[in-house]
Design brief:
226 residues; alpha+beta; 4-stranded antiparallel beta sheet; 32% helix; 29% strand; globular
Length: 226
């Protein structure tokens, strides 16, 4: 399905947000690098998907309007074999909301986490955010803002404007981040917002740096209610 079709279908069903998988499908269409993942409907299909992706994997509950999966106990990580996936799937399926399914996802490994976001301002339109991500994002508040569309030059400048910019270079044995790839992700979030005025907000957090490449591990697209 195209991003427009995904959004239209979600709105037709009265969803306030896209599912994580739908959100990533929309963002990937605009150049945001996302995790390799498969949908599953039961323990056996989850185990099969995990084998196709390659262990270890993460398993998540997946449904529209499911914004706080961790708090709801709908995320299990570091699953190393099919039996572990089946057991985790059984636990998650007992907690899933009606119409939900399972998302089997590659485990992206990296110590550096960033965020990319978008909020639509009534006066200025889509405003794109970049900054330090992960569990400390709100506490540290190390973010910068640009209006969409974001150019390549602006995206690269955003990286230099955060206080934690040293993390983007070679750091404690870690390779320098592929800034061009990260810039494409920032640009892509702005492009998605401009292409789809039905989107109210976008939250991509964390963007983990795996080696030197950025990958969106979680994403949420919030739709307008009007």
């Amino acid at each position: 399905m195209t991003p427009a079709e995904i959004i239209k279908q979600a709105r037709a069903h009265g969803a306030r947000t896209l599912s994580e998988h739908q959100s990533k499908q929309v963002l990937a269409a605009y150049g945001v690098p996302v995790t390799a993942e498969r949908l599953a409907v039961d323990a056996d299909t989850a185990a099969q998907a995990a084998a196709e992706i390659g262990f270890p994997v993460a398993l998540k509950g997946n449904a529209p309007d499911l914004a706080h999966k961790t708090e709801a106990g709908l995320v299990e990580i570091g699953l190393t074999d099919a039996d572990a996936v089946r057991a985790a799937a059984a636990r998650l399926m007992a907690k899933l909301p009606p119409g939900g399914n399972l998302l089997v996802q590659e485990m992206a490994s990296g110590k550096r986490e960033f965020l990319i976001g978008m909020a639509r301002d009534d006066q200025y339109g889509p405003c794109v955010t970049f900054g330090l991500g992960g569990i400390f994002a709100e506490a540290l508040g190390d973010t910068v803002l640009r209006l969409a569309p974001v150019s390549a030059r602006e995206a690269l400048a955003m990286m230099d404007d955060i206080r934690a910019k040293a993390l983007l270079g070679p750091y404690r044995g870690m390779a320098a981040v592929d800034r061009k790839a990260l810039a494409r992700a920032i640009i892509g979030v702005g492009a998605a917002a401009l292409a789809h005025p039905e989107i109210a907000e976008i939250d991509v957090n964390p963007v983990i740096i795996a080696g030197d490449r950025p990958v969106a591990v979680d994403a949420l697209v919030v739709l307008k209610t009007d």
